[in-house]
Amino acid sequence: MLSRYEIFCKVMENGSFTKTAEELGYSQSAVSQAVRTLEQETETVLIDRKKDGIGLTADGEQYLPYFQQIYQAEKNLERKEEEMKGLTNSAIRIGTFTSVSRTFLPRLMMEFKKQYPEVRFILQQGEYTSIAQWVRDGSVDFGFANAEAVPGLETSILYKDEMAAVLPKGHPLTGKQVISLKDLEQEPFILLDEGEYSVPEQAFRRAGLHPKIEYKVYDDYSILAMVRQSLGVSAMYKRVLEGFEAGLAVRPVKERMERPVALVWKDWNTMPFAARKFVSYVRLKF
Questions:
Q1: Are 97 and 144 spatial neighbours (Cβ–Cβ below 8 Å)?
Q2: What is the DSSP letter of 266?
Q3: Residue 75 pLDDT
Q4: Which uninterrupted H or E stretch holds 96?
Q5: DSSP assignment, residue 179?
Q6: Longest CA–CA separation in the chain, Å
Q7: Strand 212-217 and strand 91-96: pairing?
Q8: What is the pTM of this model?
Q9: What's the rounded mean pLDDT across residues 124-133?
Q10: What domains can be seen in the chain, in order of their start residue?
Q11: Spatial CA neighbour of 280 closest among 116, 74, 81
């Protein structure tokens, strides 16, 4: 529905109520009512209605530039709304960690860009603690993290990822079908750096065990390379291991260790429109 400011400006452009009504597909009475409403709001007569046509009154001439500015602002707002719906020139800032950004996230980004070609993605890689802080301070629009490691943020769990023991080929423990935390406690351990909340450390602590942590490494795939070189054993998430088992022995762990991988954000209502659109898209895929 057109605003009364646009209708008024169109009437003055056409110099006729009848022509304006025909152009806009309105009845002449509807066009006249829109002008009368403006005159009631301004408490003055804006248009001088004569037998030979119409013209602006003195007050109308004073008001017209302001009505034109409002009309133009409304058009600009409409264009911006259309841009937002199409995500034109939108940047989606995401905090993520290695296994997410190397597994399913690229595929979802590619699929989303097919629908919204002009959207851009900015990824910040980190661990749960850093990601949670980026979300809190607004450095990213939302993030992926362990739902148990981000207190005070809204979460939507996508899936649970279980850990497995990762051993060098030929390691004595490869003779076992199932590895216990007690077995791992005895070996040089390469710990995945997950920030302040570490799933393996929590599990060892609950079991009253004290692993020999000789390395703490942020990148999952660097850990796999280190295990292949027999620098130690580790516990890694199964989704990370898929397709990278060559040169390794992977065994289930008796004591279940897992993380609930979730989308995390600060406030849904204030999250940028494009980011909310992508979050909703990701949730539909799980």
A1: yes
A2: S
A3: 82
A4: strand 91-96
A5: B
A6: 105
A7: unpaired
A8: 0.72
A9: 95
A10: 4-85 (1.10.10.10), 91-157+261-284 (3.40.190.10), 161-258 (3.40.190.10)
A11: 116
